[in-house]
Amino acid sequence: MRAGRFVLLCLSVAAPQARAEQAATTTPPYTTPIASTAVSVVPPSYVIGAEDVLQVMFWRDADMSAEVIVRPDGKISLPLLNDVQAAGITPEQLRARITEMARNYVDTPNATVVVKAINSRKVFVMGAIEKPGIYPLAGGMTVLQLIATAGGLKEYAKSDEIRIIRNVNGQDVRFEFNYRRVLAGKNLKQNIELKPSDTVVIP
Length: 203
Hints:
The chain is of the alpha+beta class. The protein has 4 helices and 10 strands. A hairpin with a 2-residue loop joins strand 8 (162-168) and strand 9.
């Protein structure tokens, strides 16, 4: 009798443990966050540029839908529509353009353009700064904010001779930035909002 009771006790302990192990192998890891590449907030001034990732979706026409990367020539390739100029216009303008082109293949096309990743909006910082390099410009960013993001100025930096170089219609335009004066609350207009492809040079 004692042996029988011992066997039953072992089975009663093992059964819940086996069920727990089975649940652990079959239950999805809901606590693990799922990364998303979609851009939740697109800057109001945003226009599509090279290397941006877009998702073009046609309602009820999945064969025409695709996730695409804007090529260096500013175009994207879509099923049936082939090459479509995307760079230099807003997502809404691209949606209207694609919808119009799709009328040749679909009676009432309904297209949507979703920005998955903004890779074209970037700024550059170089010189006497802790972390020189390329930084994304997803939203508004001032010179002071970029310097902070890049780790701050190095000890020997000439903080009163910082330059911002911007290309405007093929011509380089330079802006001056005096770090000390801006920190002191003087001449704050120097702390301009950066635009895509701006280069901040810190001697």
